[in-house]
Every structure is written in C-alpha cells, then in structure tokens.
Specification:
This protein has 425 residues and is mainly beta. The chain is built from three helices and 33 strands. It has helices at residues 39-55, 80-85, 131-147; strands at 4-6, 14-16, 24-27, 32-33, 59-61, 90-99, 102-111, 116-117, 122-127, 155-163, 170-177, 184-185, 193-198, 204-209, 216-221, 227-229, 237-243, 249-256, 259-266, 272-274, 282-287, 293-298, 305-310, 317-318, 325-331, 337-344, 347-354, 361-362, 368-374, 380-386, 394-400, 407-409, 414-423. Strands 3, 4, 5, 6, 7, 8 and 9 form a seven-stranded mixed β-sheet that branches. The protein has a four-stranded antiparallel β-sheet with strand order 12-11-10-33, with no helix packed on it. Strands 13-14-15-16 form a four-stranded antiparallel β-sheet, with no helix packed on it. Strand 31 and strand 32 (407-409) form a beta hairpin.
Length: 425
C-alpha cells in the first residue's frame, strides 16, 4: 500500500515499499514488422504498451531518440551494453505479423543489467480490430513479470456519460477501455440512469433507471445490449445494485414505507430476501471477494458510517470512526481493503481502510469526489470528480492506492459513476 522502489539485486523486480523514488527506466522500441504492411501496426502496438506501463507511475520510458541500439529482428541477440549505456533497466522487444485481417504479436521482456530474459516470450493472435487489446495484454504480462502483481490494462470501465448543462444533463450508460479508448454507448438519453456495475465476468451490467418515474434495477447484456427489469417488491423503490462474486445474485437497497433496507435477489429464480430490518437507512452494499461478508453504509448510529455483516444477515459491526460521513464502500478484489467516499471539513475524499476499519488513508480531496471502483488487481482506484459552480463538470479520475499518480481518464464528455470490470478473456 505504498510507493514503488526497485534495486538491481537479483532478478529485476519492482517491490512495493514505503519509499518514494524514481520510476524504473524501461525501453520500448518499435516492434519489428515481420510481414509487409505490418510496420504501422508494430509502431502503434509498441506505443500503447509504453503508455500502459508509464501510466502506472511505476515506469519511466527512455525516449526512442536516446536509443543507441536498433532492434531489427525478433530473434537477434540483444546488445545489452547499448541499453545499459542509456540507463535502461528493462527492455521490451516485440514483433508483429499481419495476414489479411489477422494479426500476430509476440514479445519478450529483458533484464538489461543481468543480460537475461524475464520469463518466456508470449504470442497473441486476433483480428486487426483487436490490436489495442493485444497491446494491453502485452503490457499486462510485462507489468506482472516486473511487479509480481496481476495487470489491469486489458479491462473495461462502465460509466455514465453526461452532456448538457448542469441542471439538465443527459445521462447515458457507456463502456470504454480502461484508458478511455473504444467508447461505446449502451443506452439513449431518454431517462436518468445511475450506478452501472459490472458482473464478475464482465458480460453484464446492473444499473438503476428512472424511466418509469421511480428508480428500478435493470440487467443489461453488454454484447447484445438487451436488458430486462429485475423483480422487486410491489410499490417499493430499488437502487444501488451490485453482483455477488459468483454473479448469480444481486445485492441492493430497497425503500418502502419510509424505510430503506438491504435485500438480495436470486437472478435465476427471481426470489428475494430481506437482509436487514432496522429503522435506519441501509444502502450502497458491496460483497467481500469470497462472498462471505457485506460492507454497507448506514445512519443507524446517527450519522452516515460504514458497517460489515455476514452475507446472510445478522448483527452489523461498525468499522468507521473518523470525523465526517462515510459512504459508497467497495471491497477490494484482494480482500484486504475497503475503499469509500468521505465527507469532512467541507471537502469530499476517496479513501481506503482495512476491513476492520484500521489504517484509514485519504487519497484525494476536492469539492466532490465519490463513487470509487477498484482495478482488477486492487492496485488502482477510479472515481468521479465534480467541479464547483453552475459550469461545473464531471470527470473520471484514477489514483494509485498509495495516493500517488492522480490523473484524469480521457472521455469525450462529462463522466461519472465508473465501474471497473474484470480482465477480459
């Protein structure tokens, strides 16, 4: 849960420590074109790999104009002395072949100072339309070999796209690659939509829509863009849905008779079950990765705080005790942390804490930060940020779990309510 450090002792590896030092220098020369017409693809793929790595804040790319050596063949020996001369610690080499609408990418990762390959080379194949995905897969493998952690580049983010003035915004569900590319809209702007949530397999989305005049939960197939409303109690209002880790159940909030509690729905049978029975407001539930526990927000103590209880219900245990109000908790994919939104001192923050409430850390601060969502590897968070005033706009930002590397995720219009999906197959 801290910043990166690296040292040339044994195999090349970035280790997560409490120190903050310079990112690891890495060289990513343009990949070799092995067939006619592949040169542009090879260059573009290498640029995406480099952007993925440097975007983490853990790596610094050696500019190509500083390179002494030239990679002309994937099979040729590496001139390690030339790469050491430009202070490269790691080197990524690759080759691309294009035949019709099919593309093949292969790559290797080298420890420059040790003069040895890290792991074995890999090969990815697909259509030319999927070239960015293959570049992300290469970057994921490089990242994993050097950090020892899972990657997150070959993933998608669902969110609410926002256009129009602040008081009359048109909101549509959209999905994009983690870096903002390959944007696709999933709904029109005829009705208000909120809080999309990816399924564990990334093929479905839950979201809340006001198209009937009151909030209702819908289940949408991302591939076919077909959807259906999920059954809830007659006359009740349902919102804040989230999948169980196995994707078979939906955890959500339901308001009826002036009270809001947590409920669970079995998707296949439509059977519902009430999990809490308190006069307070219980909402924003999230499962632990193993499905054994639930974290949620409640005002049962008089203020908005975070609680954990067994997945089947039972007596909740409060875990937040700091100054301010806590909300929108989300369990990390690693199971060791819970991200949350905190309002204190007139500012909003995105923070993380251990699952027992200890070691609370605030990662951001602004006029309005909310809706945290975890990367598949539990290393990075995305969230919504709203700027102040009548001309205020919404945007998605990402930040490392250490609080470093805060940056905006590019979207063509306003964006909010991100949901980071799993790594794609």
């Amino acid at each position: 849960m801290a910043a990166p450090s690296w040292a040339q002792q044994g195999p090349l590896r970035i280790e997560i420590t409490e120190g903050v030092i310079e990112p690891m220098p890495v060289a990513v020369p343009d990949f070799v074109a092995e067939t006619p017409g592949a040169a542009d693809w090879a260059r573009r793929i290498a640029r995406v790999v480099a952007a993925d790595l440097t975007g983490t804040g853990l790596f610094r790319e050696i500019p190509q104009e500083a390179h002494i050596a030239t990679i002309t063949s994937f099979a040729s020996p590496v001139a390690f002395a030339d790469w050491r001369a430009v202070n490269a610690q790691a080197l990524v080499t690759g080759a691309v072949a294009v035949r019709g609408d099919r593309i093949e990418v292969k790559f290797r990762v080298w420890d420059v100072f040790a003069g040895a390959e890290l792991g074995q080379g890999l090969r990815f194949q697909g259509t030319t339309e999927s070239w960015r995905r293959m570049a992300h897969k290469v970057a994921d493998a490089v990242y994993s070999r050097i950090t020892g952690e899972g990657g997150y580049f070959d993933s998608r983010v669902a969110f609410v796209s926002e256009t129009g003035p602040k008081g009359e915004r048109q909101k549509r569900l959209a999905v994009m690659d983690y870096d903002g590319e390959n944007l696709r809209y999933l709904t029109g702007g005829d009705s208000l939509v909120l809080a999309p949530r990816f399924s564990p397999t990334g093929d479905r989305l839950l979201y809340t829509s006001y198209e009937t005049g009151r909030p209702r939960i819908y289940l949408l197939d991302v591939g076919s863009v077909t959807r259906r409303a999920l059954p809830t109690e007659p006359g009740a209002t349902a919102f804040s849905p989230r999948f169980s880790p196995d994707g078979r159940q939906v955890l959500y909030s339901q308001a009826a008779g002036g009270n809001t509690d947590l409920w669970r729905l079995d998707i296949a049978s439509g059977r519902t079950e009430r999990l809490t029975r308190a006069p307070s407001i219980e909402t924003a539930p999230s499962y632990s990765p193993d499905g054994a526990r639930i974290v949620f927000e409640s005002d049962r103590s008089g203020g908005q705080q975070l609680y954990v209880m067994e997945a089947g219900g039972g007596r909740p245990r409060r875990i937040s005790f700091g100054q301010g109000r806590y909300g929108t908790p989300v369990w990390s994919p690693r199971g060791d942390r819970i991200a949350f939104t905190k309002q204190a001192g007139g500012r909003f923050h995105i923070g993380v804490m251990r699952t027992d409430g200890s070691d609370e850390r605030l990662l951001t601060a602004s006029f309005l930060d909310e809706s945290p969502t975890w990367a598949p590897n539990g290393r990075v968070l995305m969230f919504s940020r709203e700027t102040q005033g009548e001309r205020g706009t919404s945007a998605i930002y990402s930040v490392d779990v250490s609080g470093r590397n805060l940056k905006r995720v590019p979207t063509p219009a306003g964006a909010s309510d991100p949901s980071w999906g799993p790594l794609q197959d």
